[in-house]
Design goal:
90 residues; alpha+beta; four-stranded antiparallel β-sheet; 4 strands; 33% strand; binds zinc ion
């Protein structure tokens, strides 16, 4: 049996929770752990989310998350948002 679509899951780099799932074509080419900015319901803000194509990548993401690999990226995303808000405060 062949299927032409896979379900890819996105995990928030700030809280590590599962965000949305997207249907992607099986031959859809992206680098592993592709990041996409999505609204996270847990964090209540837009945050980069890591795309996981299979259980293996989910496991890798969780290991990276627990190891603090995304902390810098979270900090960077948060700082950009604060800077945008500061422009109006000055
Ligand atoms: Zn989150």
């Amino acid at each position: 049996m062949s299927k032409s679509y896979d379900t890819h899951e996105f995990y928030c780099i700030k809280c590590g929770q599962k965000n949305i799932s997207l249907q992607r074509k099986v031959n859809h080419k992206h680098a592993k752990h592709h990041m996409k900015k999505l609204w996270c319901w847990h964090c209540k803000e837009e945050m980069n989310c890591v795309e996981c194509k299979n259980d293996e990548e989910v496991k890798e993401f969780k290991n990276n998350f627990l190891a603090g690999k995304y902390l810098k990226e979270v900090e960077r995303s948060t700082r950009i948002t604060q800077k945008e808000q500061l422009v109006w405060a000055q």
